[in-house]
Amino acid sequence: MRTALVHRLTTVRNLGILAHVDAGKTTVTERILYATGTTHRRGEVHDGTTVTDFDSQERDRGITIFAAAVSCDWDGHRINLIDTPGHVDFADEVERSLRVLDGAVAVFDAVAGVEPQSESVWRQADRHGVPRIAFVNKLDRAGADLDTAVRSIRERLHPAPLVVQLPIGSEDGFTGVVDLVGMRALVWADGAERPAVEPVPPDLRDEALRRRRLLEEAVAELHPDAFEEFCTASALSAPTLTVALRDLTRSGDGVVVLCGSAYRNRGIEPLLDAVVSYLPSPLDVPAVRGSHDGQEQERAADPEAPLAALAFKVNATPTGRLTYLRLYAGTIEKGDTVWDAGARRSERIGRILRVQADRHAQVERAVAGDIVAVVGLKSTRAGSTLCAPRAPLVLEPPSVADPVVTVAVEAARSTDTDRLATALARLVEEDPSLVVRTDPETAQTVLSGMGELHLEVAVEKIRRAHGLDVNVGRPTVTYRETVVRGVSGHVHRHVKQDGGAGQFAHVVVDVEPLADESGAGGFAFRSVVTGGRVPQEYVRAVEAGCRDALAEGPAGGHPVTGLRVTLTDGSTHVKDSSEMAFRTAGRFALQGALRACAMAVLEPVVEVTVTVPEDAVGGVLGDLAARRGRVGGSEVRAGAAVVTATVPLAELFGYATRLRSRTQGRGTFTARPTGYAPAPAER
């Protein structure tokens, strides 16, 4: 039994589709489902007939908003696939998906090459160590060029691109590819369900041999075994080349590049073959690491090991609450009791579902390597670890970015206030990147998220799913404060005597700026106190107090970042000193020190890429300058001008409407967060 289950894991591929918005991710996913026989008609984004973009807002807007999981079978392999959003406002959905994936397909537009959000998701995949293959899509478009797209991958993403295909024809004449590994041609005739395998066309023979040689040389430089064969035989056999490409993909030392046109259903079958050949199975990735009682542990992908699963998505549906799980080790069956390590309570598995976007098929069990949804969990949240009750383990949860845009929301009718609170709580449960709080000054309910579109989608979801009429205030951005010039030797003595045991704490702190590449910095604390004048447990209390003081800065009540605090001296009292006293002293000491520092207010800034007709460039540049934008460069791609600029996020509200009016609807733009920059004094 165990041998059969382990063998089955070798045929599982858990992968995501990553790309910039409009690069064709969802179309690639739909064609994969069609090619594998999972669906029997081709879903189209523009028709609103796709499987993965099933939400009404996704179909109305024509973009992917929520990560959707689907499963299919190809060549004896089970492929669990997640179609991720490409818009920057939904990067947190991508982050949670990447946390549980073993591999990914990065999709690039053959005309635009590497775009801002494709670069961002590539960096996210780098952080998680997710192996990737690249698919250059839309080769049938005017201006499409595989070599230019590959050059942008090399220059902007810095991997070693290993191109394994040569296009046959260009633009409207794109009909197939030459497989450089097998040295054969794959040609898709109009209306054909599968490609015809043919010899390499004579007019492409020399170019195919040249590119095969370049591929062999590139692989030999990176792979020791391939290098040895190349030195001996001055060439690489197809089996050696395949093994080397698989090893380089899984180690991250190279990225296999394929090409095609998903819309025309050309290039999908070779892409699936590459997924099976090059991307890892759950057995090929390192054992998952977690901790228990401060001790780090590993759990291998073994169905008979103690359970270790990560909840990465929660979705409230009309039929119940779905919790999406990635099983790293162990097995779950219907009716099992599991331990939620985060909530520290037991949960019962009601049903186990194999997910097909918004459709589900019930299964009796799930094993290590599976991605499934379960029904019955009451308190489990995204990022929670589910484990065996007798073998507890906590896995590292996906990181959640700080929100940068805020709106005030209120029910249009006072009688709906409680219903709105319930709807907001459900929103936050489903999407941890949304934050709901009450403004202490205005008593308004405030919703914060990753961008204007993110909040717009969230509010619209409340209106549609809960039938609530909601009033929304103008968006505002989240500012930060930072230290420009610090202070040294700031002294604070906390003395309190009100009967009984008193409180005494004496601390001396230095405060100095601390910056990183984003301009936001963060917070660092250290102690240089010697001689035991402040015991270690009190040092930790001082640090906790300093962190308490970061919530509100002296320049405007914004969170404080970009500083280092050094505890240089202090003293204690034999009876009256305590951790609480030193925590209070740390908070007041830093608050006083910040008032003595030179402070600056920071605002979030984004890199904007604007694509417009060449005759509209002048107006766009003037508008960006009026929005305090700094233009970084411009270039012409396929007859359109592409302008890159850094703009304060606060100046981008309503920019989409303004850009459309200036360009008669022909202009588009994307934005990518780049950090924080000093805000003007008159803000």
Walk me through what this model shows:
By secondary structure, this protein is α+β, with helices and mostly antiparallel strands. It folds into five domains: 1-172 and 254-278, P-loop containing nucleotide triphosphate hydrolases (Rossmann fold), CATH 3.40.50.300; 288-395, Translation factors (Elongation Factor Tu (Ef-tu), domain 3), CATH 2.40.30.10; 405-473, Alpha-Beta Plaits (2-Layer Sandwich), CATH 3.30.70.870; 480-596, Ribosomal Protein S5, domain 2, CATH 3.30.230; 602-678, Alpha-Beta Plaits (2-Layer Sandwich), CATH 3.30.70.240. The strands form eight sheets. Strands 18-17-23-14-15-22-19-20 form an eight-stranded antiparallel beta sheet. Strand 7 (165-168) and strand 8 (176-179) form a beta hairpin. Helix content is 28%, strand content 34%. Mean pLDDT is 86; it is low at 1-7. It has 16 helices and 39 strands. Helix 4 (91-98) packs parallel to helix 5 (116-128) and helix 13 crosses helix 14 (579-596).
